[in-house]
């Protein structure tokens, strides 16, 4: 919409009609007129329709100047507003864009670009892209809609497609209409087709490329795919020669006769060129033979309806807890009966045990206790465990042979050893008494 000249110049007399004999407008009428103009501009800026063709490169530039009118001019009078503006694009109702559509904007002071190659599946279906502009100075936003109406191409897809890798270009530079037109003109001079279209443009970073160092004004590179309706020219076929393939394997530049037609503006890596002839491609579809490991086709997923009846889990809850609890209770009662009600008792055990065995048992207990006491204190009296407690035949208790003041340092540990020592001493005395004692004979020697 183009405004009158007097609106651009801001002539108050032209608007109020002073000096021309016209009627002056009231402030209310002025406000209504401004609101109407703003509504018209908002309506114009809100929706924009574009009509790309399927299989042909689509480029849409988001101009910053187009969105500056949405933000109030806060700078001082006389200053030019150059606010940093960034864009966010997404499919209406979704957080991201369609798979075929890409977006790039290098800096907040440059224009954004939407580009991609529409697919045949979206023909006839309007694609609404929400564009949100952010003013990084005032933190204000403005939202517009871009309606993409994809049209069907007449001879889509083009049967002969070639993809070039241009080293000295970035994707946003290549998307410019004049640069892309120059490249298509150079390709047309080499190929000589009747119809030539740019199919797709892809940044080298999207193909696994690395970000170049910020020296010598290096570029990241861009892949450009073009399609034509005639077979490839002999110049493009030179890349498939064995000599050029050998040079590419040795990381050397191949010899291409038509390279000089691109070298003036575009530096092409001929080792990465891709030539696709769709007329000779054989369908690689194979029928799937269902067997082990392949599930049958269940069709599309059908979610359950919202009118499902609520299920009562009270019975399941009782069964899940009651049955294990009842089994555990029965096992507990059986174990309690065995451990508590079936005990014979100590008295019954002692009655069925012989007295001699009980005496042995008590003696062992006393000996164990005395040995433990001895380990704590080495200076105690002679242990009673080393003395015979009862007679081995009659079972009568025998008192200890020594008194309390008896020196126990020479006492053997077992009484049997003591008896053997005493018996040995008596035998020695008896044998010594039987031996005759020598008699002393006095001999008198007289002097002769």
TrEMBL record:
<protein>
    <recommendedName>
        <fullName>Epsilon-sarcoglycan</fullName>
    </recommendedName>
</protein>
<dbReference type="GO" id="GO:0030425">
    <property type="term" value="C:dendrite"/>
</dbReference>
<keyword id="KW-1003">Cell membrane</keyword>
<dbReference type="InterPro" id="IPR048346">
    <property type="entry name" value="Sarcoglycan_N"/>
</dbReference>
<keyword id="KW-0333">Golgi apparatus</keyword>
<comment type="similarity">
    <text>Belongs to the sarcoglycan alpha/epsilon family.</text>
</comment>
<keyword id="KW-0206">Cytoskeleton</keyword>
<feature type="transmembrane region" description="Helical">
    <location>
        <begin position="317"/>
        <end position="340"/>
    </location>
</feature>
<dbReference type="InterPro" id="IPR048347">
    <property type="entry name" value="Sarcoglycan_C"/>
</dbReference>
<feature type="domain" description="Dystroglycan-type cadherin-like">
    <location>
        <begin position="49"/>
        <end position="157"/>
    </location>
</feature>
<keyword id="KW-0832">Ubl conjugation</keyword>
<dbReference type="GO" id="GO:0005856">
    <property type="term" value="C:cytoskeleton"/>
</dbReference>
<keyword id="KW-0963">Cytoplasm</keyword>
<keyword id="KW-1133">Transmembrane helix</keyword>
<keyword id="KW-0325">Glycoprotein</keyword>
<dbReference type="InterPro" id="IPR006644">
    <property type="entry name" value="Cadg"/>
</dbReference>
<dbReference type="Pfam" id="PF05510">
    <property type="entry name" value="Sarcoglycan_2"/>
</dbReference>
<dbReference type="GO" id="GO:0042383">
    <property type="term" value="C:sarcolemma"/>
</dbReference>
<dbReference type="GO" id="GO:0005794">
    <property type="term" value="C:Golgi apparatus"/>
</dbReference>
<comment type="function">
    <text>Component of the sarcoglycan complex, a subcomplex of the dystrophin-glycoprotein complex which forms a link between the F-actin cytoskeleton and the extracellular matrix.</text>
</comment>
<keyword id="KW-0812">Transmembrane</keyword>
<keyword id="KW-0966">Cell projection</keyword>
<dbReference type="GO" id="GO:0016012">
    <property type="term" value="C:sarcoglycan complex"/>
</dbReference>
<dbReference type="InterPro" id="IPR008908">
    <property type="entry name" value="Sarcoglycan_alpha/epsilon"/>
</dbReference>
<dbReference type="Pfam" id="PF20989">
    <property type="entry name" value="Sarcoglycan_2_C"/>
</dbReference>
<keyword id="KW-0472">Membrane</keyword>
């Amino acid at each position: 919409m183009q405004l009158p000249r007097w609106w651009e110049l801001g002539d108050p007399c032209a608007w109020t009609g002073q000096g021309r004999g016209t009627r002056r407008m009231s402030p209310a009428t002025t406000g209504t007129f401004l609101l109407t103009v703003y509504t018209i501009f908002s309506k114009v800026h809100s929706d924009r329709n574009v009509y790309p063709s399927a299989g042909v490169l689509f480029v849409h530039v988001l101009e910053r100047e187009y969105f500056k009118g949405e933000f109030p001019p806060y700078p001082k009078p006389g200053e030019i507003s150059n606010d940093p503006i960034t864009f966010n694009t997404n499919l209406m109702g979704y957080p991201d864009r369609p798979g075929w559509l890409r977006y790039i904007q290098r800096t907040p002071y440059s224009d954004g670009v939407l580009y991609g190659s529409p697919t045949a599946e979206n023909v006839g279906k309007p694609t609404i892209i929400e564009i949100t502009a952010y003013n990084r100075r005032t933190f204000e936003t403005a939202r517009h809609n871009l309606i993409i109406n994809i049209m069907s191409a007449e001879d889509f897809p083009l049967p002969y497609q070639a993809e070039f890798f241009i080293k000295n270009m970035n994707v946003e530079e290549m998307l410019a209409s004049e640069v892309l037109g120059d490249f298509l003109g150079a390709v047309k001079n080499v190929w000589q087709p009747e119809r030539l279209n740019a199919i797709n443009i892809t940044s080298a970073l999207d193909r696994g490329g690395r970000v170049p160092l910020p020296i010598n004004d290096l570029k990241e590179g861009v892949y450009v795919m073009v399609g034509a309706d005639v077979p490839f020219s002999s110049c493009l076929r030179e890349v498939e020669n064995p000599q050029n393939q050998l040079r590419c394997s040795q990381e050397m530049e191949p010899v291409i006769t038509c390279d000089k037609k691109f070298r003036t503006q575009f530096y092409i890596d001929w080792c990465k060129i891709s030539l696709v002839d769709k007329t000779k491609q054989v369908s690689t579809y194979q029928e799937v033979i269902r067997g082990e490991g392949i599930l049958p086709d269940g069709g599309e997923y059908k979610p359950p309806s919202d009118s499902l009846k609520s299920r009562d889990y009270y019975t399941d809850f009782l069964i899940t807890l009651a049955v294990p609890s009842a089994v555990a209770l029965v096992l507990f009662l059986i174990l309690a009966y065995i451990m508590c009600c079936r005990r014979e008792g100590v008295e019954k055990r002692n009655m069925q045990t012989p007295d001699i065995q009980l005496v042995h048992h008590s003696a062992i207990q006393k000996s164990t206790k005395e040995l433990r006491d001895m380990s704590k204190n080495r200076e105690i009296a002679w242990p009673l465990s080393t003395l015979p407690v009862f007679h081995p035949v009659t079972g009568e208790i025998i008192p200890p042979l020594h008194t309390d003041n008896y020196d126990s340092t020479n006492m053997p540990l077992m009484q049997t050893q003591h008896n053997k020592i005493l018996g040995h001493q008596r035998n020695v005395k008896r044998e010594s008494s039987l031996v005759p004692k020598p008699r002393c004979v006095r001999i008198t020697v007289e002097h002769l």
